Amino acid sequence: QPALTQPRSVSGSPGQAVTISCTGSSDDVGGYKWVSWFRQHPGKAPQLLIYDVFKRTSDVPDRFFGSKSGNTASLTISGLQADDEADYYCCSYRGTNVGSHVVVFGGGTKVTVL
Amino acid sequence: EVQFLESGGGLVEPGGSLRISCAASGFTFSGSAMAWVRQAPGKGLEWVSSTSSIGGNKYYADSVTGRFTMSRDNSKNTVYLEMNSLRVEDTATYYCAKAYHDIIVLPDLYWGQGIPVTVSS
After folding, report:
1. SS3 assignment, position B29
2. 3-class SS at B31?
3. DSSP letter string over B17-28?
4. Burial degree of B22 (CB within 10 A; 0-12, 13-18, 19+)
5. Which chain B residues in 20-49 lie under 8 Å from chain A, judged by CB atoms?
6. pLDDT band, very low/low/confident/very high, at A1 (cuts 50, 70, 90)
7. Is A89 within 8 Å of A106 (Cβ atoms)?
8. Taking 80 as the threshold, does the pLDDT of residue A33 lie above it?
9. Residues of A in contact with B44 (CB under 8 A)
10. Integer Cα distance of A36 and A47 in angstroms
11. Contact assessment for residue A101 and residue B59, using Cβ atoms and an 8 Å cutoff
12. Does the beta carbon of A38 lie under 8 angstroms from any beta carbon of chain B?
């Protein structure tokens, strides 16, 4: 069972906006600023889109917007395009009560462009 | 240009061992934490392990603790994952990735293409 909860799928028409949620706990998403989002096309390695909750990597357009409220992070994709059809994963740092440092992922959300 | 040369994957029987490797170039490897992430067929991403830039600190997912060991050789710009007592559920594509920070060991921008590992009798 993935540590972070994402919807299995979301869909939208070209030009519309979709939002993917990622719900964790105060031990991960809610407690730290280190939340990332990855996109993965079939048969390809994941691609980093967003880090530190809202920062975009250099080649990611501003159609991609990351945010966080409490224990839930969100990725909004506006102006949906055909190439946005892919699997999206959230990822968070998790601190532990034994002083270790671990990483948790969400189960992934398939974005379908209608 | 960042590149990863991955090797060592393949078919192994349950209970067996395997070591996979990932040689990196195009970024300051010795100053970078590294991570392994896996993906079972048709499933999502699962973090496996991370190591700090010098290799003194290593972190593991509960599912592999005691069975997997991550190491690195900064003279060869290479990270390794030694996998013992392999189980059918360890079948996955294993990705090496540069990590964000020595403590905040999230995978970040650079990922390899993946090493397929199959555990089956």
Report:
1. helix
2. helix
3. -EEEEEEEESS-
4. buried
5. 35, 37, 44-47
6. confident
7. yes
8. yes
9. 2, 87, 89, 105-108
10. 11
11. yes
12. yes
C-alpha angle A14-A20-A22 in degrees, rounded to nearest 5: 170
- Closest-CA distance, B111 to chain A, in angstroms, reads 7
DSSP one-letter string for B54-90: SSS-EEE-TTTTTTEEEEEETTTTEEEEEE-S--GGG
What single string gives the DSSP state of each residue in chain A? Answer: --SBB--SEEEE-TT--EEEEEE--TTTTTT-S-EEEEEE-TTS--EEEEETTTEEPTTS-TTEEEEEETTEEEEEE-S--GGG-EEEEEEEEEE-TTS-EEEEEB--EEEEE-
Cα–Cα nearest to B48, from B30, B34, B27, B32:
B34
Q: Which residue has the tokens 């002083």?
A: A99
A95 band by pLDDT with thresholds 50, 70 and 90: confident
For the residues B57-68, what does the mean pLDDT come to?
A: 95
Q: Which residue has the higher pLDDT, A56 or A95?
A: A56
- The pLDDT assigned to A100 comes to 76
**CB-count burial class (<10 Å; 0-12, 13-18, 19+) for B96:** buried
Facing A51 at nearest CB: one of B44, B59, B108: B108
The residues in A 88-107 lying below 8 A from B, measured between CB atoms, are 89, 91-93, 100-107
